Structures are given as structure tokens and as C-alpha cells.
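Sequence only, no structure available. Ideas?
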Amino acid sequence: MSRDLDRLLDSIERLTELCAETGSFIEGMTAEGFRADRLRQRAVSMDLVIIGEIAADILKRNPDFAADHPEIGWTDLVDLRNHIQRDHSSVDPAALWAAAIGAVPQLLSQLRALRHFNAQGE
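Reply:
I predicted one. C-alpha cells follow.
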């Protein structure tokens, strides 16, 4: 296996782990509870930043792969990272919550489907 392919597979695995981790941070929480919990907000923010970093790396190093999988919002993930980094002190907890309960589980599902698809050799 080539080094580039190894790196891509590692990135997909890391994205999968981060999505699962984000889910664990908010498990059993309500939006109101999340809004009151700055520690969890920071944890979710950090995971979203790292997810965006990995997405940016995939776009840079594996643009054909990213183009072959437009169902994954690669640029949306990068844009979210940029927003959090640029406006870290004023990121709306409701926006973080929305990403954690919507975009992240969707990404996790897409990554798992992608892994399953590739495992089938198709």
C-alpha cells in the first residue's frame, strides 16, 4: 500500500473516531444542558476544529478522493473549522450543538458507509 493511501485511510479512521468522540461528549445531554456546560462546548469545538483540519488535508493531498465523495461536505467541514478558529470566543453554543447532533452523526454515517463500501472492494 502506498504511503499516500495509508495516510488517507488513517485520516478516515481518525475522522470516524472524532465523530464518535463528539457523540460521547453530548450523550444524554439536552441543548439547554450543553449551553450551560462550557467544558463540553470546548471539547466539541476542539473536535470540530480537528475534523476540519483533517478535511482540509484530504482536500489538499487527495483532491480526487474528495471529488469522488461529494456527499461528504469537505469544504463545509473546513469552513466550520475556520469559523471556530476565527471567532472562538463568540461561537454560538447553539451552532455547536446543531453541528454535534446533526452534521457530526451524518458524517459518521457517511464515513462508515464509505469504509463498508471500500471493504467490499467496490
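Helices lie at 3-26, 31-36, 38-61, 63-68, 74-86, 93-119.
Hope that gets you unstuck.
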